[in-house]
Design goal:
mainly alpha, 83% helix
Length: 92
């Protein structure tokens, strides 16, 4: 599952760009270029939404993994404290 999500992330991440459409002149050619750029941005919006959804999903998975690791660490800490108490009781 992680591989699939990662592959989708990589596949759609190349489409993210910070390119803004700027009208550089008043000629028909410049207006056509500007309109084409705007149309392309509208077509890319769904893929950006998909990318954002995949990123949110990945963040949630990482949060869950982090929570599990914290629980494992807490369990290890409790076990080590118990072991330390046993060693102290034998020494005293």
């Amino acid at each position: 599952m992680k591989i699939i999500i990662l592959s989708f992330f990589i596949l759609f991440s190349h489409q993210i760009s910070a390119h803004d459409c700027v009208l550089k002149g008043t000629s028909a050619e410049e207006i056509t270029i500007y309109n084409t750029c705007k149309a392309d941005q509208k077509n890319q919006a769904p893929s950006k939404n998909l990318n954002n959804s995949l990123l949110k999903l990945k963040i949630n998975e990482l949060k869950n993994e982090n929570k599990n690791l914290k629980n494992q660490l807490l369990d290890l800490k409790i076990r080590l404290n118990s072991l330390l108490q046993r060693v102290d009781s034998y020494l005293n």
